[in-house]
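Dear support,

I submitted the protein below through the web form. The confirmation email said the job was done, but the results page showed an empty box. After a refresh the structure appeared. I'm attaching both so you can tell me whether what I see now is the final result or a partial one.
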Amino acid sequence: MPVISIRVSKEEKDFLEKVAEFNGDNISEFMRSNSLQTAETLVDFATYKQLMKEHEENDQSISHEDMLKELGL
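What the results page shows now:
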């Protein structure tokens, strides 16, 4: 399995170890899972912004009342 190294201060390392331990993880698992989660969140947010931009450029929204009429309800 590949290894990624990061440099942190002694205080940062101690802090990360304590947070990882508090969450029941070792520091490696804590950093891996949180890095991946953060990356996924960034991708999700970028996708949301792009889709909202496309929606604003081509808004085809209809009101709730119009939808009910269209569905015959």
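Response: this is the final, complete result; the empty box was a page-load delay. The chain has one domain: 10-70.
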